[in-house]
Amino acid sequence: MIHLKKDHEIAAMRLAGGVSSTVLREAAAFVQPGISTLEIDQYAGERISHYGGKSAFLGYRNYPCQICISVNEEVVHGLASGRCVQFGDIISLDVGVRYDGYIGDNATTVAVGGCDPAVQRMMEVTEKSLYEGLGQALPGNKVVDISRAIQSCVEASGYSIVREFVGHGVGKKVHEDPQIANFDDGSRRSPVLKPGMTLAIEPMVNLGQRHVEVLEDDWTVVTRDGLPSAHYEHTILVTDGEPEILTCPENLPSEPRES
Ligand code: MF3
Ligand code: CO
Q: Which of the listed CATH numbers 3.30.428.10, 3.30.200.20, 3.30.565.10, 3.90.230.10 matches domain 7-245?
């Protein structure tokens, strides 16, 4: 069942989106050569609390960290550790914040200092595919229109789309209906998009082959071929017209409040 948000819920989703996007930016700016992923995670947790939010991921299905930090060949759900990031690494950061009972979910990929231009280009195409996908989040369109736009953008550039993990509805819970594949999965019925739907759109793109596996820690998703992967995500609202991006810093609550 796809829940259409009422106005007061949308207002809370904007605040959650404002906090999660601000913390994502702050965490991305915090990344520098020599820092450990645990330091990044702790910093992100402090910033979430500063704005009166809570990590939406910590404890979700026993997830052990504040945010997801995925380095190089790690695709998503990377766990913080003592590992120090180095010049040339790329780091995907995924921040989900609960604020006033609602969740904002967003992700970005950043290079540490700089990286191989071929990898930089993959990151740019992944971000572009996110915007192509959310550009299809129009009332009367179907979920699969988002999926197809992402897939054609990515595959036209010669990269692969990860199939095992998908975007999703988001609201009071991290994962709500519908699922939003980043490729056309051929299913006969794709939900029609309606104003009031709030969706997390999140392409995961590999430089090499699309295949992934989950490490022994039961969380970290890596590419099978060991080549790097990028991940971008926004939470959006389907409106009567163009979609509204909820995960933007302009939506940060003006007064930090007690949580
Ligand atoms: N944005 C990711 C997702 O939607 C983050 C979930 S991580 C988890 O799947 F730890 F919460 F599972
Ligand atoms: Co998500």
A: 3.90.230.10
For residue 11, report the distance from its CA to the centre of ligand 2, in Å.
19
pLDDT tens string 223-239: 999 999 999 999 999 99
Q: Cα separation of 234 and 108, whole Å?
A: 9
Q: What is the DSSP annotation of 198-218?
A: EEEE--EEESS-S-EEE-TTS
The answer to whether 5 and 196 have CB atoms below 8 angstroms apart is yes
Atom of ligand 1 nearest to the CA of 168: 4
Q: Return the ligand 1 atom nearest residue 200 CA.
A: 4
Does position 258 have pLDDT exceeding 70, yes or no? no
**pTM for the full predicted model:** 0.97
- Strand pairing category for 176-180 and 198-201: unpaired
Residue nearest to atom 11 of ligand 1 (CA): 57
The residue whose two tokens read 């939406």 is 56
CA of 174, closest atom in ligand 1: 4
| CA of 177 relative to ligand 2 center, distance in Å | 12
Q: Are 201 and 178 in contact (CB under 8 A)?
A: no
